[in-house]
Structures are given as structure tokens and as C-alpha cells.
């Protein structure tokens, strides 16, 4: 095959620039190793939303201001997003297993520190460090899947990974409410952080035994200029959003154009490095020469604008408008999480046959489910609205499960394994940026609608959730356009066994 080698084949290469010890055989521990990475990934993503329900009791117990408490949530999100691409590149260059285990250990320690924090200042510091650890761990998940699996198995693995991404965001309020209900008392919020410790330690022990031992074929060099430019650009775009409740959008609006200019400088810098055969932080040809990557990353960013924001709106409506407890509020939206879990597992098997069409159908379903929920909460009697919306949310969850996991598969399907960490980090950075926009915009729209309608919670939730569904129209437009560009015979893993450097590599600029 033109001098190609298979994963761990005669030359021991995996196409990702790493040396495998498997002698050409599939890793017998790959599925067990996958579950370890999924559990760790679930914890890091769950911590984005699980803390929100504990903020009132946390603020009371630590005698903290509303602005400082907001940093407990926004600081984690910001640090998470800032770290993703750089950590993905580090994993590609210096070993994904090594970075995964180090980041997981740091996440466990920071979780314990957050739970034990005696002041809000120390809690915010612990959360910032926890966000860095989470951002360092997250891109290794998708990169390890690229490395361990091929063909139909890779699609199934990405289906489970996509389910983890979608479900962790949806069940955060439920999990947080359940922990607060079980750990009743003035310090009960601390268990939201402590619960990560035993789970993380177990994942660390299993990961050290099960994750594949591979090493980089050659030590990579980090791109410090790219790290600074990308970090500054993302910080400029996200800081006004994470500080939106404290007036960040009004005071820091000028950071948006500044961030766009910095990111433009980052793109120019990366192109310059690539043209000189240097190692850029993020290979520009991922976007220009890798089939499906740009469309998938854009779709994910747009989808998470609507997907992430609606959960805060639901929490505000059920708790403040209808007087539900945090647990009851979380349980009210559980049908969405259930539907997402069911569909994501099946979507991993279907994406090979349906391709981008699956995400088109999924987006239509999730928009219909959320749109129907918005109308029902506006028009139906309050005592029956939750029961009527349950099947609508379930249908929306089924649609979401057909969006997130298939899109991850199709976005990363043509990415060379040697670039998998950076590519996965960039994809998740887009998701985090979209989530930051959604969590700032939709609750803000909800409060504006409340003021305009004289505290009509039913109309306000309909406007905000309906706007979230409308935001997904942009994602649908990207999906339809990408579907029209699909070539006959495209598959989620079109060249699953082409992993060595061959003559085909020189024909494909992304390798």
C-alpha cells in the first residue's frame, strides 16, 4: 500500500507521530480505557454547570458578594477554554497518556481544594486551577479515541464521547440539586466538589493501567507566539461574556473587536510558521485542507449557543417563577438528557450510513422540541406544563443526541492522528465559546423579557427558549451546506488504515 504502515505495524507507527507497543494488534484494553477517559471527561464537563445550583448557599456560607461568587462559575469556564488548544498540542507532542494522567491528578487535587476552601478568594483560585486541569484533560479524550480506534469502532467510540458531552451539560442541574438534597446543611455545597475526589482517584488508578503506552516519535516544539496570541484572543472574546451579570458587556464591549484583531494576527502567525515548515500551535490546513473540519467546528460553536443557554433559563423559570427546589427544577428537564443519551449511543452506528444528513435531522428535531416546549410553557397551565413538555423535551434530546456525537465524528474523521489533540482542543474551544455566548445572552434575554412583560415568567421563558431554538437555525444552515458538499461514498473514517507516512501523505496537505 505505497509503503504505508498500520497502527503499531512493522515500524510501530500510528500515523500520529507516536510509537505504539501493540505489535500491529488492536489494543485489547481499548474499550475499558475509553470508559476511563469518558468518566474523567464527564466530571470536567459536569463541573461547568453543576455549581450553578449551589451558588445561593455558597454565597451565604462564605459571606461573599454576588460578583465574587460568579467567578466560581465563570472563572472555571474561562480557564477551561483558554487551555484547550495548547493542551491538545502538548499531548500531540509529548504524549497523550502522560498529559491525561497529570491533568486528572491535578483536577482531583483542585476539586479537594475547592471543597475545603475557607474563603471565596481561595475557592475562586482553586476553581481557576481546576479549569486549567480540565482544559488540559479534555482534548486528550478525543485524541485517544483517534489513536485507539479505527473504522466503525471509531464511530461508536465517538458516539459515546458525544453522549458524554451532551449529557454532562444537561444533567448538571439535576446532579447539583441531588447532591444538595443529600448533603443537607450549611456546608452541603462543598460535596459538589468533594464528589470528584473518589471518582477521580479511581479513574486515575484505572487509567494508569489501561491507557495505551505510546510515546511521541519525535519531541515537538511548542509555539509560544501562537500560545500568547490565541490565549489573548480567546480571553478578549470571553471575558465580557463571563462577566455579563456584573456589567461586563457594557464596560468591556471594546474587547470584542480587539479579540477579533488578535485572532486575525494569530492566523497570520500560524500561516507564517506553516509556510516555513515550523510547528504551529494549530495547523492552518486543518481549516482549509481537512474535509469537514471547518464546517463541523462552526456547527458545534453555533449549536452550543442555543444548547447551553437554555438550561440556565429553565432553572430561572422553574425555581424563581414556579418555586421549584433545585432538585425538582433539574428533574423537570431530565427527559432531554434521557433522550440525548439514547440517541447518541445509536447515532454512533448510524453516522457511517447517513453522514451529515443525520445531524440535519437531529437539528430539526431539537429545534422542534425546544420550540414546542417554549410554546407549552407560555400557553399551558402551570400545574400541567411540566408533564406536557416532557415528551417535547425527550424529542429534543433525541435530536441533540443526533447532533453532538455525529458532528464530533464527522469533524475529526479526516484529521491525522498526529494532530488529533490540537484539532480536538480547537473543536472544544469553539463549543466553550458558543456556550459562553449562550449562557450570557439567553438568561439576559429572559430578564429583559421579564421586565418588559411585568414579571410574566411564562412569556419570558417562551421568548428566551424560543430564541435558543432560533439560534440553532444558523447551525442547521451550516449542516445543510456541508451536506450538499458531501461526495458520494463519504464515510466517517474514509481511510481508517492509512496511518504511516506514505506517498499519499504528500498528496494530502493535512498529513
Throw out a few tags for this protein.
disordered N terminus, Growth Hormone, Chain: A, single chain, antibiotic resistance, mainly alpha, disordered C terminus, 21 helices, globular, 511 residues, transmembrane transporter activity, membrane, Probable actinorhodin transporter, two-stranded antiparallel sheet, 3 domains, 2 strands, MFS_trans_sf
Write a structural description.
The chain is mainly α. Helix 6 (151-182) runs antiparallel to helix 14 (326-332), helix 6 (151-182) crosses helix 18 (404-412) and helix 13 (293-321) runs parallel beside helix 19. The chain has helices at residues 30-49, 55-62, 66-94, 96-116, 120-148, 151-182, 191-194, 196-210, 224-242, 248-251, 255-275, 285-288, 293-321, 326-332, 334-354, 356-379, 382-401, 404-412, 420-452, 457-485, 503-507; strands at residues 18-19, 215-216. 75% of the residues lie in helices and 1% in strands. It contains 21 helices and two strands. GO terms for molecular function: transmembrane transporter activity. It comes from Streptomyces leeuwenhoekii. Residues 15-26, 502-511 have a biased composition (Basic and acidic residues). The chain crosses the membrane at residues 33-55, 67-87, 99-118, 157-182, 188-206, 227-246, 252-271, 292-318, 324-346, 358-380, 386-412, 433-454, 460-481.
Strand sequence of the main sheet, in spatial order? 1-2
Q: Given the C-alpha coordinates, what overall shape results?
A: globular
Unreliable spans are: 1-23, 488-511
CA-based gyration radius: 22 Å
What name does CATH use for the topology of the largest domain? Growth Hormone, Chain: A
**How helix-rich are the residues, as a percent range?**
over 70%
**How would a crystallographer describe the biggest sheet?**
2 strands, antiparallel
CATH class of the largest domain: Mainly Alpha
Oligomer: single chain
CATH architecture heading of the largest domain:
Up-down Bundle
Give the helix/strand class.
mainly alpha
Domain count: the total is 3
Write the H/E string, N to C.
EHHHHHHHHEHHHHHHHHHHHHH
| Quantity of strands, as a count | 2
